[in-house]
Amino acid sequence: MELEEAIAQHVADWNTAVVERDVLGTQVPAQIAGAFQRFCRQHLHAEAGDCLFYRSSVGCVAGLTLDDGRAVVVKAHQPGQREARLAACQRVQRSLHARGFPAPEPLVAPVPFGLGFAVAERYLHEGEVRDAHDRAVRRLLANGLHAIAASASPPERFRDLGGAWFTALGDRLWPRPHNAHFNFEQSAQGAEWIDALARRARAVPLAGELVVGHFDWRAEHVLVSQGRITTAYDWDSLHLEREPVVVGAVAHAFTARWDGVQPTVEPTPSLEEMRGFVADYESARGRDFDAAERKLLWSSCVYSTAYTARCEHSLASDGDWHPSYRTFGQLLREVGEELLGAPSM
User: Which of 73, 263, 283, 300 minimizes the number of CB atoms within 10 Å of its CB?
Assistant: First the structure.
């Protein structure tokens, strides 16, 4: 498929190009395609050919074949992403790749692109997305998350990654939403109960060691083949954060697959599955979290669930969002109070 056609189709599926506007300053598919083609010409020294895929969410991502035979992925980031942080993400990614971890090899360091920066990596697509409600897949994800933390050592080398939302917001409750589809201020009415749970979660004392954590480590971004992880994506989601914060954040949505306008499987885990993910991580870690770490872990899980519920609430406030699946808002109502009130769980 031609890149311009893929972009136009993606925009039509979502009925908007707000992410493209924020990243590139335009919503015109031909102009967006032209920017990616110039990037390939200038920084990969080849002409872009067929489009393997195109998506936009936090940034704009295109998988492309080149006329020299390579297949690459180019990701354009929003202006808020710092060059130093993106470079630190690539250092972790390159280190993991060199160790044999299935992270694609970085090809182009952050360079100015649109209103922010873009990077490029080799296209790696070995394996398939599996259902993380399956215990064996869940265990692979937990083991992989721990492998990232264990391999990126000493973590102090990666301070430019910065902390995650849970600890890096100061007095603010919420970050700027990751996607311009969501407006927390305009959709505040009716979300007071979500904010209250998030505020309680953020008040929990910090505990645990700093590690490098992948904060979008979920089924959609991890491909599996023959019982092992064979490809892992979305390496700009790395942060230097307390280990319990990492595990709690990932536990809230490791089952999610947003590989379409509607999820292809039930996106939310059950409470039992979240507990199982934490137990699998502790098994890979070789020791359990202590009481203070566990309290922080579940608070991070509640906060992350509340953030996703807030995004859903923003969509629902427009009046035409009617999901057919169990939402993160429903999950938060079911488990929020229990997780905040049970630190020894």
Answer: 283
